[in-house]
Amino acid sequence: MKIKTISVYGLFGRHDHTVNVFNDGLTYIHSPNGCGKSTLIRVMSLLFAGSTKDLMTVPFERMDISFSDDSSLIVERSENELLIQMQRNEIVSPLDANELPALARTTFIPSERTVVRRGDGRIMNAVEAYANDLSGKLKTAKKQHELVVPQYNDDRGDDELVFWAKDLNAKLNFIRDAGIVMNMPAGLRFPPTRYDLMESRKQYSDLIHGISEFVGKNYYLSESTVVFKDVINSFLLDKELRVDEKSHVVFVLDNGVVLPMDSLSSGEKQLFILFYRMLFEAMPSSFVMIDEPEISLHVSWQQRLGQAMKDIARLRDLQVVVATHSPQIVHNDWDLANELRAGRA
User: Fold this and answer.
1) How far is CA 242 from CA 48, 215, 250, in A?
2) Is the N-terminal amide bond of 293 cis, ω within 30° of 0?
3) Are residues 200 and 332 in the same domain?
4) CA-to-CA distance for 219 and 199, rounded, in angstroms?
5) Of 266, 282, 298, which residue constitutes the final position of a domain?
6) How far is the C-alpha of 205 from the C-alpha of 128, rounded, in Å?
């Protein structure tokens, strides 16, 4: 279920805003300072997290959110409480706060994003924390490299099995690019030819099914890792993001020297954080809100950032709403932009 529009009335007691949200790709929100674009996406994040106590601290009168199935979520302030209702086919039903997260999976990337609070309460540098998290994910995946070959009775034809194996082999190569290598059984060539199937059909059929399960467990992480490296490296000039043989996430200068994470520029750190959270934290087909992605970025990087975010949004079927002060971020995509104006409608 996609979000179609977001409307807020009486924001700060003086603004009414409506934002049209696009089905896929990006939606931009821009406005003069003080009109509430950052507050609007923060309100959305609090709402779908079910954080009604924090939501009560934001001064607004009402919020309406319409969805692609023509239902609407209505939130109204009533004295010292919020009245939350879902309207479907003119039938209005009350909702509890704990039901809100199920309506839309959301990720909120605030403007203050260079530090994170871990589960144990520790405050950590975000780049370091995310690099460690990715390294841990890849190490875990590499430990599970043993191939399990199940026993199947497969009635597919030879041509279907050969085609399936070729598709799986392409995905295996992608997984290897992320440093996850499967132990292939000896004596069997992959992908097999029709002649191989004639010689050992049952063995190859079982092998193909086993590889399919291996790919299913590892492809998403591998794809995210390869895309993450590619998109980061497309911005860098004198260095490269790599995953080394020990699954450590590192930046390597052109002369081969490994660069400490703390030595990255503020703009490089911002890119690392933004793209990590979009690829590894946001769930597919979810709703992502980003506040001021232009922070610390040179104009040339700002102009390229939108396309990179758009590509990731399409890859993961994300709806991404970006609140920005920068016309360079919007660049040539003004047809995707909503301008918020001061005052009541």
Assistant:
1) 35, 22, 5
2) no
3) no
4) 30
5) 282
6) 43
CATH number, domain with residue 17: 3.40.50.300
**Residues 189, 57: Cα–Cα separation, whole Å:** 64
Tokens of 186: 């000896």
Provide the pLDDT confidence category of residue 120 given band limits of 50, 70 and 90.
confident
- Tally the domains of the chain: 2
Nearest of 212, 224, 213 to residue 179 by alpha carbon: 224
Span 129-156, mean pLDDT?
Answer: 84
Q: What is the CA radius of gyration of the chain?
A: 24
Asked if the model's pLDDT at residue 345 lies above 70, the reply is no
- Hey, what amino acid is at 197? L
Amino acid 86: pLDDT: 93
pTM of the model: 0.90
Residue 310 has pLDDT above 90, yes or no: yes
Q: Give yes or no: residues 1 and 51 share one domain.
A: yes
Q: Are residues 6 and 84 in the same domain?
A: yes
What pLDDT is stored for residue 117 in this prediction? 86
pLDDT of the residue at 282:
96
Last residue of a domain, one of 262, 282, 302: 282
24 pLDDT band, cuts 50/70/90, is low
Two structure tokens written together for 93: 């039903």
The CA-CA-CA angle for residues 140, 240, 231, to 5°, reads: 75
Sign of torsion over alpha carbons 276, 280, 285, 291: negative
Measured N-to-C along each axis, helices 266-276 and 299-316 cross at an angle, to the nearest 10 degrees, of 10
72 lies in the same domain as 214: no
Range of the structural domain that residue 342 is part of: 1-105+283-345
CB 311: neighbour CB atoms within 10 A?
14
